[in-house]
Amino acid sequence: MKDSRKYLEIVSHYEACLARHGDNHLGVDWPNRADAEKRYQIMLEILADDSRSPVSLLDFGCGASHLYEYIRARKLEDRILYSGLDLSAEFIALSQRKFPECDFYRVDLLVEDPDVPEFDYVVMNGVFTEKRGLMFNEMWEYFQAVLRRASGKARTGIAFNLMSKQVDWEREDLFHVPFDILARFLTAEISRHFVIRHDYRLYEYTAYVYK
Q1: Could you report the per-residue pLDDT of 142-199, keeping only the tens digit for each?
Q2: Which 3 state secondary structure label does DSSP give 88?
Q3: Residue 159: DSSP 8-state
Q4: Tens-place pLDDT, residues 78-128
Q5: What is the distance between the terminal CA atoms of the chain, rounded to a whole angstrom?
Q6: Is 189 helix (H, G, I), strand (E, B) or coil?
Q7: Where are the alpha helices (DSSP H) in the chain?
Q8: What CA–CA distance (Å, rounded) separates 152 from 119?
Q9: CA dihedral 176, 11, 69, 107 (to 10 degrees)
């Protein structure tokens, strides 16, 4: 990308949402709580066939760590060892206040990699659904760069969601990605072993990519 840090405007957008709405689904720009919780369910279903307990999970782009709230509400914290990572100092400070028992990393893996360990799974919920003012090609380059780095932190698999092209209309500020483009990139650079979930009634899809 010409401006390699242009993606920071996405971070600024989410911080503005937090300032406007507080610590809730609107504060991380999800329109309603029920759909947000459906996303947490889908993200965690990458673990469905894994019989190990516990497994370590990095919530990449953790925001206010609502995924961990979902984990705790379902009493899964003994099975899932949760850590969070975010570019935003505001969100990391909030998450650390809420959950001091968890490890949090405020880091941009495209710039530095200070002591961020490997995890069994890395999930990226909402990290790539909005592109804001970025052009598609700029967001696509950012997405590929992050996937390369994030996959290197996952021993077993990664999960992420993107906006679907199978919709009645598209929004200019959202990141709608065709299946075939994604599949070519994953196969060439990340892994041939992946699942695309388009079955949970939202205008997006989730990919599970296994090592």
Answers
A1: 999 999 999 999 999 999 999 999 999 999 999 999 999 999 999 999 999 999 999 9
A2: coil
A3: E
A4: 999 999 999 999 999 999 999 999 999 999 999 987 789 999 999 999 999
A5: 27
A6: helix
A7: 8-21, 33-44, 66-73, 89-98, 136-151, 179-185
A8: 9
A9: 110
Return phi, psi of residue 100, to 5°. Answer: -65, -15
Say how far apart CA 184 and CA 60 lie, in whole Å: 23
HEC-encoded secondary structure of 102-139: CEEEECCCCCCCCCCCCEEEEEECCCCCECCCCCHHHH
Which residues have CB under 8 Å from 101's CB, separation 6+?
A: none
DSSP state of 188: I
Q: Are 159 and 32 a contacting pair, CB within 8 Å? A: no
CATH code of the domain occupying 8-210: 3.40.50.150
Helices 89-98 and 8-21 pack at an angle, to 10 degrees, of 50
Are the beta carbons of 82 and 68 closer than 8 angstroms? Answer: yes
Please give the Cα distance from 182 to 26 (Å, whole number): 28
pTM above 0.85, yes or no: yes
Residues in the chain: 211
Among candidate residues 109, 108, 88, the one with its CA nearest the CA of residue 16:
88
